[in-house]
Amino acid sequence: MLKQSSSVWRGIRCRNATARRWTNRVIRSPQTAGLAALAAFLILLEVAIRNGFIPATIVAPPSEAIAGLFTLQDRVDFVGGFSITFIITAVATLLEFAVGVPFGYFLFRQRDFGIAYGGWLAALFAAPVFLLYPLFLVIFGRSYVTLVLMGFLPGVIPMIIEAEQGFLGVSPTLINVGRSHRLTAAQIFWKVMLPAAAPTIFTGFRLGLMYTLINIVAIEYLVDIGGLGRIVADRYFRFDIPGTYSAIIAVASISILFNWLIGRAERWIRPI
């Protein structure tokens, strides 16, 4: 009986110690610190707006903007707008990955082309590609094709540049080890080069996502095609400040969601 009691107490102490370690790890994690800082900022902003230090006609109280995520559907097709922006961004980013990685690999393998056109790509990356949207409107009209292409063009350039740099940074030792195990060229690419270059490639992926989402929402805002950009414009011109900020929060949530998905994909390709 005493032995059973002591074993039970040891089990309880072990579970308590495990729970304490898990709690300490969560409390001290960077994610918790970031959420705490964001919550503190929103509380201070709420207080400042409620007390008139910041005009409510310029910045909506965070509580009203967050509540608008659940009430905005009564005034506009919020769910439909969110879905359009999310799907268009997903299609554009997938195209960027499908085009950028092979093209970056081509520039890595064919160094003459990489040296010749690397400067051109850098110049295009700095160019305001967004200003081409009237041309695409003439060619494709006010359609989702215009949104996809206007999101794809500014995002694929950093994808190509970072993919090339990622493959250039792969250690020749890793490639030689793969050859020593008699791997084929395709196996060396998928099992050695792509995982080794993944951190740099996915840096370009995240950078491309930022430009892609900005361009898509901006075109939606200006051309009234649809999506969250159109909702932002509609609420803004109706002087619905909380609704405007609710739509902006939805855009930010799409960015957060895609960054999380990109992180999951990177860990899948490079699990260590």
Topology:
Elements: H1 2-27, H2 30-50, H3 62-71, H4 78-109, H5 111-126, H6 133-140, H7 144-168, H8 172-180, H9 185-223, H10 228-237, H11 241-269
Query: Which term fits the overall shape?
Result: globular
Number of distinct beta strands: 0
Per DSSP, the total helix count is 11
Mean pLDDT metric:
84
How many strands, which pairing sense, and closed or not: the largest β-sheet?
none
Instruction: Supply the CATH architecture of the largest domain.
Output: Orthogonal Bundle
Question: What percentage of residues falls in helices of 4 or more residues?
Answer: over 70%
- Report the C-alpha radius of gyration, rounded: 25 Å
Residue ranges: pLDDT <50 for 5 or more in a row? none
CATH superfamily of the largest domain: MetI-like
What is the C-level CATH assignment of the largest domain? Mainly Alpha
What structural class should be given to the helix and strand makeup? mainly alpha
Q: How are helices and strands ordered from N to C?
A: HHHHHHHHHHH
Which band does the percent of strand residues land in?
A: under 5%
Structurally, the number of domains stands at 2
User: N- to C-terminal separation?
Assistant: 47 Å
Assign the CATH topology of the largest domain. MetI-like fold
